[in-house]
Amino acid sequence: MGGDILWAGGLSLAALLFWGLLLAMIATFLPRFLTAWESRAEARPPELEETRPGPPPRPLEEPAPAPVVREALPSRRQAEAEEAAVAAAITLALALYQEETARVPEFFPAPGPGSPWALSGRWQTMQARLGFSKR
After folding, report:
1. pTM above 0.70, yes or no
2. pLDDT tens-digit series, residues 16-41
3. pLDDT by residue (tens digit) across 52-88?
4. Which sign, positive or negative, has the C-alpha torsion 49, 51, 57, 59?
5. C-alpha separations of 93 from 46, 83, 86, 99 in Å
6. Rounded CA gap, 30 and 110, in Å?
7. Distance between CA 29 and CA 31 in Å, rounded?
8. Quick check: 130 and 107 in contact, CB under 8 A?
9. Which of 2, 65, 78, 111 could cysteine-pair with 115, CB 3.0–4.6 Å?
10. CA angle 132-133-135, nearest 5°?
11. According to the 3-state scheme, what is the secondary structure of the chain?
């Protein structure tokens, strides 16, 4: 009875190892095989390609270059408005950053002088963690 369980367990382990090895080989070698297959197809000389009945293929025409579109320079009034908007955005970001980095108020009153928490330094450690920036 015990030998049958060991034999079944060993057989299961062998099957798992076989399928795992097979999947690992496919995952490793399939992209390499496909890349090699594509490069082989691209490197095939035109004489060996299949000939199809019908008219010969047209040569590819090169597209005409796209016209260069130049944007008009912004007027002085637009530039001043953009500069004001950028300055306002910088001011807002700086204000938010300063609020975020400001010291976090103590959430709990400090323990008395005889508290074991205060004597062991745990209270200061907890307050330091509360004041630590999350960024």
Report:
1. no
2. 999 999 999 999 999 888 888 888 87
3. 566 666 777 777 788 877 666 667 778 888 888 999 9
4. positive
5. 62, 15, 11, 10
6. 65
7. 6
8. yes
9. 111
10. 140
11. CHHHHHHHHHHHHHHHHHHHHHHHHHHHHHHHHHHHHHHHHHCCCHHHCCCCCCCCCCCCCCCCCCCCCCCCCCCHHHHHHHHHHHHHHHHHHHHHHHHHHCCCCCCCCCCCCCCHHHHHCHHHHHHHHHHCCCC
CA distances from 75 to 80, 81, 82, 126 (A): 9, 10, 11, 56
- Position 77, amino acid: R
The percentage of the chain sitting over the pLDDT mark of 70, rounded to a whole number, equals 66
Tokens matching residue 125: 């450690």
**Any residues with CB less than 8 A from the CB of 107 and at least 6 apart, and which?**
130
* CA atoms of 104 and 67, how far apart (whole Å): 58
